[in-house]
Amino acid sequence: MEAIDYAVPNTVKEAIEILSSKGDKARILAGGTDLLVQLRGGRFSLDTVIDVKNIDALNTYTFDSSKGLEIGAAVELYRIYQDPELSEMFPGLMDAATLIGGIQIQGRATFGGNLCNSAPSGDGIPALIAHNAVCNISGPKGDRQMSVEEFCVAPGRNAMDNGEMLVSISVPIPPKGFGSNYQRFIPRNEMDIAVVGVGTSVILDDSGTKFESARISLASVGPTPIFVSDAGEFLAGKEVNDDNIAQAAQMAKNAASPISDMRGTIEQRKHLVEVFTRRTLVESISRAKGLEIQALWKFTSNTEGEN
To answer: pTM for the whole thing?
Structure first.
């Protein structure tokens, strides 16, 4: 077993200096729910693990009714979903936060770590995309921002350069008429990796009968999480009805590029993308209107074959 140095910086600047000096031989430890498993499995050969739990900027979250939510990259999931104000304002994020692992994992796991792990199946990523979230990144060349949909570039790889680190994630205040939802399909409770995950959000007009805009994102059906921008563009300005929801779901299905593996086939995954896009759009509409989902289930009444 190789010896690994354990660094505990107190500032973002110190962490960046260590990252820059070690290159790909160092990794950030936020919650450790992915990194420790990967180290044990021999995925990385590291010189240094950098524990960021002493850096205030990464371990706090702030919410302002005019500026929005900023989540430090090392803020544990349970702290987010146990905040009643955040639960009301950011429903799609709460859906994902309560699905990532079990209670014990949620005591350590973070949205930042889920994003930086950049797995195609990451549950937090489609929900962040649905909420139009932005990554706040710091590195040797300074600070920069990047939309979450641009962040993942390949399985397990992201767009950060050497020496850069994710400091926080900014989520804008949802406007009037906003609703969001994240759902996934897993083959059984013991296999906690999504076969398909779908996050959606909608903004409805004052009458609640038309889409002003929509965002749809997919997990586990491509080498990276997929932002289906054309489906959201299609819904903008359209009536809220069965046909338009079905058309957007078909567009999401067409955007999926899954593989067949032990958890599901290409055909099954594409079918599930269509099903879960409809379901999450219906729930997003329900939340936008402040109604119970049963009252809006008529929008997806043609559910033959959904299992």
So the answer is: 0.91
Structure tokens at 255: 């955007």
The 10 Å Cβ neighbour count of residue 102 is: 11
> What are the C-alpha distances in Å from 243 to residues 117, 143, 147, 297?
37, 44, 30, 13
- Give the residue carrying structure tokens 């078909």: 250
Measuring CA to CA, how many Å separate 274 from each of 73, 77, 183, 246?
A: 32, 28, 12, 8
Q: What are the pLDDT digits (tens) for 31-63?
A: 888 888 888 888 878 899 999 999 999 999 999
Neighbours of 42 (CB within 10 A): 7
68 CB-side CA count, 13 A: 14
Specify the pLDDT at position 116. 96
- With CA atoms as reference, report the closest residue to 112 among 223, 181, 41, 33: 33
Where do the domains of the chain lie, and which CATH numbers do they carry? 5-51 (3.30.43.10), 56-171 (3.30.465.10), 178-299 (3.30.390.50)
Give the 3-state secondary structure of residue 163: coil
Residue closest to 179 by CA, chosen among 299, 301, 67, 272:
299
pLDDT of residue 42: 81
Residue closest to 269 by CA, chosen among 87, 234, 261? 261
In which order are the strands placed within the sheet that holds 211-219? 178-185, 196-204, 211-219, 226-227
pLDDT digits (tens, 9 = 90+) for 254-266: 999 999 988 889 9
Spans of the chain below 50 pLDDT: 292-307
| Residue-level pLDDT at 301 | 37
Q: How far apart are CA 184 and CA 221, in angstroms?
A: 12
